[in-house]
Amino acid sequence: MENGATFLFDVSLILIFANLGGLLAKKLKQPGVLGQILAGLLIGPAILNIVEPGEFIANMAEIGVILLMFIAGMETDLEELRKSAGSSLAVAMGGIILPFILGFIAIKLLFPIGGNKEAVYTGVILTATSISITVQALREFGKIREKVGVTTLGAAIMDDVLGIVLLTIVVGITSPEQGENPMIVIAKIVLFFVLAIILGRIFVTFMNKHSSKMLRNRNVAALAIIICFILAFAAQEFGVAAIIGAYFSGIVFSLTPYRNRISHDVHNIAYTLFTPVFFVNIGLSVEFQGSVEIILPVIFIVLAAVMGKILGSGIGARLTGFKTREALQIGIGMIPRAEVALIVANLGKNSGMINNTIFTSTILMVIITTIITPPLLKLAFKAD
Q1: What is the CA radius of gyration of the chain?
Q2: For the chain, give me the number of helices (H) and strands (E)?
Q3: Which of 46, 154, 259, 319 shows a CA-CA span of 20 to 30 A to 38?
Q4: Which domains are seen in the chain, by residue range?
């Protein structure tokens, strides 16, 4: 009972500070998500240490990001997404190639005596974008259904998948005993998308034809959340990020007659409880122990992460017809790193591919890129 009471108190504190942080940020004309992340920093181990991150909080946060991506899928203009596929691929490729090169150079400058393995692996860490922060900022700015927002979403999904393939290839080459065959990984990813598209089409057809009798007076949002969770789990099992499965399920339900009803109900559930916990949990994960000796590595890695996306993704956007300001908006939207970068960094540390300094610097890079993206996006969209 004591543990249960402690957990309830922690969740209460998280929600109180999430709401206060969001309100204060909006008063200062900043995105609410920035205030929630900083609220996590304040109450977490980094400053006041009144709430400690734990497994249950992490699980709630995971549900929060999955529901956030489901809502983003429901709000995506599918026709615009199809039109932007070529641009998204160019943005994704630029956002993979340049961060990889800059990450490699940064580690070679920091550790000139070391081998190429750490440099290559750090480059891989910097490739994958975490779109959840950008999604929330784009929603607040009303840009998620516009061409810039749709292209950024599409590019982030593509570079997530391509980043996983790149990681598999690198691990397979540098440590064959730890890696899975890259061709198997690619085949599993392709199979997931093929199955998802086929089953999605069948489901949409069924819902449009027969659901009016079956679901007229029932809680359709419950069905949507169940399918969202199943598809998120399936995506992870196939080697694709769970948030991609959630995003795809949102697109599927956006094509049904219940789009507005589901969006309203899921939005209330997500933003009342789970999504605030996700953003606060990012701040809770920060600790500033031993930060003095890693200042230089953090600066190098953060610069490589930020400039790699702004320039790499921005060049890809410019080459596909976007104006300079739009290319800058897309590049900034691709800056955040979170789930995939943390997973890859943890794998690298456990397998001995990166040292503790690079690992700690990566964690701080994730936090910094997460915090700076919303205000930078606000500045980039200010003149629109």
Answers
A1: 20
A2: 17, 0
A3: 154
A4: 77-274+289-381 (1.20.1530.20)
| Token pair recorded at residue 264 | 């309203």
Q: How far apart (Å, rounded) are the C-alpha atoms in residues 145 and 316?
A: 20
What separation, in Å, do the N-terminal and C-terminal C-alpha atoms of the chain show? 53
**Residue pLDDT, tens place only, 60-84:** 988 998 898 898 888 777 777 777 7
- Are the C-beta atoms of residues 14 and 361 closer than 8 Å to each other? no
DSSP conformational letter for 274: I
Q: How far apart, in whole angstroms, are the C-alpha atoms of residue 139 and residue 348?
A: 34
Residues 6+ apart with CB under 8 A from 215: 223, 258
Chain segment 80-114, per-residue pLDDT in tens: 777 778 888 999 999 999 999 999 999 999 887 76
Query: How many beta carbons lie within 10 A of that of residue 131, not counting itself?
Result: 30
**166 contact partners, CB below 8 Å, separation of at least 6:** 96, 100, 124, 127
